[in-house]
Amino acid sequence: MNPAPVIAIDGPSGSGKGTLAVRVAERLSFHLLDSGALYRLTAYAALRDSVGDDDEAALAALVARLAIKFHGAGDAVRVLLDGEDVTRAIRDEACGMAASRIAGLSAVRGALLALQRNFRRAPGLVADGRDMGTVVFPDAVIKIFLTASAQERAQRRYKQLKDKGFDVNLRALLEEIEARDQRDTQRTVAPLTAADDAIVIDSTALSIEQVQDRVLELAAQRLQAVTD
Ligand code: C5P
């Protein structure tokens, strides 16, 4: 039997890939993997358990004992770590920065690999991250690389965090986004880059609906071809 089809959506932070992934998964009734949440959860647990963010062996061991649960779907999803609701705690920028630091360690990436692949189940999976199409699901049936200018991404992130009640500063957000881009694209293990066979979409001047329509159109064509 063929493994369940995967739609990989990669791109830098704030490109809109999270929102896109949620919408596409809902429309297709596919499962969803927010791989960034796994890096954020690992960073959060490391802080909680006082594990150094450069201690590869201890971080990999930490991943192996994390009890992670996602409840609900879409925007209403709740993330539980060892029974504690950390949905909000893992979303702040400090946790994102810490996640980006530990994401450069190959032992951490290796430890998270099987966990991510376990999300692949029928009827299919939409996987959102940085290396979904290049490393985790190289056989994805559709690979999207979603980008937008750093300025536009900072503005979107600002609105998103503000709407969630966080106290944020646009200038600081832009600086953080640029620092995160730099680290994510320049690390030696699984750097943020479009797969050779990815479709690159620049969403700077596009609405989320326009991007979603484009991806759903591709999905209709390619998923049909896979099941034929
Ligand atoms: O997407 P999100 O902002 O939640 O990801 C947090 C951090 O986790 C990213 O900045 C990136 O360094 C890391 N990450 C990664 N590979 C993924 C997903 C996230 O390296 N597949």
Secondary structure elements and pairings:
Layout: E1 6-10, H1 17-28, E2 31-34, H2 35-48, H3 56-65, E3 68-71, E4 78-81, E5 84-85, H4 93-102, H5 106-117, E6 125-129, H6 132-136, E7 142-147, H7 150-163, H8 170-186, E8 199-202, H9 208-227
Parallel strand pairs: 1-6, 1-7, 2-6, 7-8
Antiparallel strand pairs: 3-4, 4-5
Residues 13, 35-36, 39-40, 96, 99-100, 103, 129-131, 180, 184 line the site of cytidine-5'-monophosphate.
Shape from CA axes?
globular
List each distinct ligand once: cytidine-5'-monophosphate
CATH class: Alpha Beta
Q: What is the CATH superfamily classification?
A: P-loop containing nucleotide triphosphate hydrolases
Q: List the helices and strands in order.
A: EHEHHEEEHHEHEHHEH
Describe the main β-sheet briefly. Answer: 5 strands, parallel
Strand percentage lies at 5-15%
Number of helices: 9
Q: What is the CA–CA distance across the termini?
A: 14 Å
**Helical amount:** 40-55%
Poorly predicted runs are: none
CATH architecture name: 3-Layer(aba) Sandwich
Number of strands: 8
Biggest sheet: strands side by side, in what order?
A: 2-6-1-7-8
Folded structure, characterized:
By secondary structure, the protein is of the alpha/beta class. The protein has a single domain (6-227), classed as Rossmann fold, CATH 3.40.50.300. The chain has helices at 17-28, 35-48, 56-65, 93-102, 106-117, 132-136, 150-163, 170-186, 208-227, and strands at residues 6-10, 31-34, 68-71, 78-81, 84-85, 125-129, 142-147, 199-202. The strands form two sheets. The chain has a five-stranded parallel sheet. A three-stranded antiparallel sheet has the order 3-4-5, with helices on one face. Helix 1 packs across helix 9 and helix 4 packs parallel to helix 8 (170-186). The longest helix has 20 residues, at 208-227. It is globular, with a radius of gyration of 17 Å. The structure holds cytidine-5'-monophosphate (C5P). Cytidine-5'-monophosphate (C5P) is lined by residues 13, 35-36, 39-40, 96, 99-100, 103, 129-131, 180, 184. Cytidine-5'-monophosphate (C5P) binds at residues 13, 35-36, 39-40, 96, 99-100, 103, 129-131, 180, 184.
